[in-house]
Amino acid sequence: MRPEYARRVNLALVLQAIYNDSTLSRADIARTTGLTKVTVSDLVAELMLAGLVRETGTSGATRPGKPSMLLAFNPDARDILTLDLSGPDRLDGAIFSLKGQRLHTAVRDLNGAVGMAALTAARELARELVEASTRPILGLGVGTPGAVSANGVVLAAPNLHWRDIPLQQLLADDLGIPVRVENDANAAVLAERRFAGGPDDLLSIQLTRGVGAGLLVAGHLVRGAASDAGEIGHVVIDPNGERCGCGKIGCLETSTSVPAILARIEADPSRRDELLAEAGERLGLALSPVVGMLGLSHVVIGGPDDIVTAPLLDAARSCISDRTRSEFRPELELTASSFRESAVLLGAAALVLLDQLGVA
Predict the structure, then answer these.
(1) DSSP 359
(2) Which residue positions in the chain have pLDDT lower than 70?
(3) CA–CA distance from 205 to each of 290, 334, 345 (Å)?
(4) What is the pTM of this model?
(5) C-alpha atoms less than 13 angstroms from C-alpha of 240 in its C-beta half-sphere
(6) Domains of the chain by range and CATH?
(7) Three-state secondary structure along 77-94?
(8) Which of 12, 73, 167, 351 has the fewest other C-beta atoms within 10 Å?
């Protein structure tokens, strides 16, 4: 391992330890990470110089010798900028602290705009966040619908009419800061893991203008060979259904996306709970093979508060449980995301933390 790379890895190890536990001394970190005390002291000095770590006083332990100095992560050292481009007809932006506290919110209505008009709106909203930031910027994280390559190219986002858009590079050139672009559902599942203490094996569903899934297996994000893992919104579940924006007939999102659900409810408000349950059952039909094949027991669903309600959740849970039940499988835990519509924004912040600081 090259020395500069080894140092970056060790620096991330030390920062991760302090980020997760602000009651550690240098000696504690050496024991936790397996690094030498000299190495830890050197790395802590670098982190303190960057303003990311600070001393908070001595420990209360009664041991011989000089009391240990405790270290704490400084959540106010940088701003993290985030964008969520998955809303039904709007773009959401936010500024977070390094611990995920929301400091600023910005919204840009699309009013039906797609294609280059939507791209322009996203770039303008990103500039607005930069102007609103009051501290050094760690980076910009973006959650976008569609398939996204490892280098941040939106390969295809049918609802935005985007294809092969180098979004990560465009925003980096615009702003002059580090940028990370990821699929919105992938970002959401990282939010559940980082900020809600979710399990290593977790399926996160985002109901927005489309339907997307983010999947963690053994703590690793599943991207797929073509960077399109989780694009369940365009899986056909009803060959006799409606035509989807992607061109196929009966895709999941024609009945389970937020616009589709709201349109059905608006047409027949008296059947609201029944229509939500129908959407939940269709979602369960799409998820059952995934849950069964991978042996998953934790699913979270994010989306608007008036959509992700008991009728939808109960129907999805019942459908999946009925189709995957066995004597070996634990009871399915399917819940609403604790972050609701903020999951993608928080996940985008988690992406920046991982990329720039190594905080996993």
Answers:
(1) -
(2) 1, 59-66
(3) 12, 10, 15
(4) 0.89
(5) 0
(6) 3-73 (1.10.10.10), 79-189+343-357 (3.30.420.40), 198-337 (3.30.420.40)
(7) CCEEEEEECCCCCEEEEE
(8) 12
